[in-house]
Amino acid sequence: MGPDGNLWFLDGFTNRTGHGPGAIGRITPAGTITLFSKGLQGPGGPTDLVAGPDGDLWFTSAAPSAIGRITPSGTVTLFSRGLPTSGWVSDIVSGPDGNLWFTDSSVPGAVGGAIGRVTSSGTISLFTKGLPPGGNQGHLVKGPGGDLWFTDYSKGGAGTGSIGRITPSGVITMFSGGPLAGTDPTALVPGPGGELWFSGQTNNLTWIMGRITEAGAITLIHSGFPSRFGTGVVFGPGGVVWLIGYDPVNLSGAIERITPMRTSSLFSHGLPTLWYPTGFVLGPGGNLWFSEASGNLAMGPGNGLAAIGRVTSSGVITLFTKGLPPGSEPDNLMVGPGGSLWFLDQSANGPGAIGRIIP
After folding, report:
1. Is the separation of the CB atoms in 78 and 41 below 8 Å?
2. Which tens digit of pLDDT belongs to each residue from 241-262?
3. Res 58 pLDDT > 90
4. How far apart are CA 63 and CA 86, in angstroms?
């Protein structure tokens, strides 16, 4: 949600089709959409978007690399001084120090990429000291202790990944080996008790999940998943951890609930046979919501199921399809103003849409 109470999103349609640099969109709670493209550059277009501490929104832009700022009225300013043109900026978050932080892959002379910082005036600094060679910085989040944390996964899935911490002054500490040996963490989420939880895969493509303390102590959590990948970690009421996973070969999977006592329960009743979840959020009333586009991705647009799903705290799954057009691919589910859930629909039969579902 933006600082103005509206929802903001990235529209990559024009840059995907080669007709422009994409756009940044704003939609009011009443459904009025405005697209802003003036000042954007292609062909990569905007790749990530976050609300900044200054009342504006900030975004990353790739090919060529730049950090961008857009005001609530739609004025775009790009900053690229200090960025290599061959890099690829992706994740961007608002840091604990009032600056914006981002990841930049393939920085020349730094074989493991970089973590970057940009001030509200557009001054960019890159930090590479301490990053492992051959890595690839992935998910970047603000941690509970005033530092930023990120995943670093090996290129080619070699299982030599790690988890990193960077202070606001740019000091990087990497945590690897031990329980992380043979793994590649890819997603990172701040959790209760000052810990961060992560998911990823092993070098033989099995799914992993774990948690890491601020001091860097890592614990792998037993999971009952028969899945190859985890796509989401969400914390529910009462200290319950919810996970969502799937097998990309068989397009099947399950939703898992882990209690504070580490009791695991799997739920799949009500899920489609072809299972490809694309979003997972905690909604009103303590229920979990997800977007599902399995049939369209597996069988071709318009030939399978697209739905928004709800999971209760007891594991009852309900799918909602009414209102979704044929060929829908709902994605990027989030909670908006008034408790409604909003999502992007990359419809195969048109330019796409923004959807809202009322719980």
Report:
1. yes
2. 888 777 666 666 678 888 877 7
3. yes
4. 8
| More confidently predicted of 134 and 155 | 134
Contact 345, 353 (CB under 8 A): yes
Report, as an integer, the average pLDDT of 37-58: 84
Alpha-carbon distance 103 to 114, whole Å?
A: 6
The one-letter amino acid at 176: S
Rounded Cα distance, 40 and 77, in Å: 8
Closest CA to 199 of 226, 230, 223: 230
CA distance 285 to 38: 40
Q: For residue 293, which amino acid is it?
A: A
- Residue 247 CB neighbours (<10 A): 18
Q: What is the pTM of this model?
A: 0.84
Can you give the three-state secondary structure of the chain, one letter per residue?
Answer: CCCCCCEEEEECHHHHCCCCCCEEEEECCCCCEEEECCCCCCCCEEEEEEECCCCCEEEEEECCCEEEEECCCCCEEEECCCCCCCCEEEEEEECCCCCEEEEEECECCECCCEEEEECCCCCEEEECCCCCCCCCEEEEEECCCCCEEEEECCCCCCCECEEEEECCCCCEEEECCHHHCCEEEEEEEECHHHCEEEEEEECCCCEEEEEECCCCCEEECCCCCCCCEEEEEEECHHHCEEEEEEECCCCEEEEEEECCCCCEEEECCCCCCCCCEEEEEECHHHCEEEEECHHHHHHCCCCCCCEEEEECCCCCEEEECCCCCCCCCEEEEEECHHHCEEEEECCCCCCCEEEEECC
**Mean per-residue pLDDT, 212-217:** 91
Confidence of residue 298 (pLDDT cuts 50, 70, 90): very low
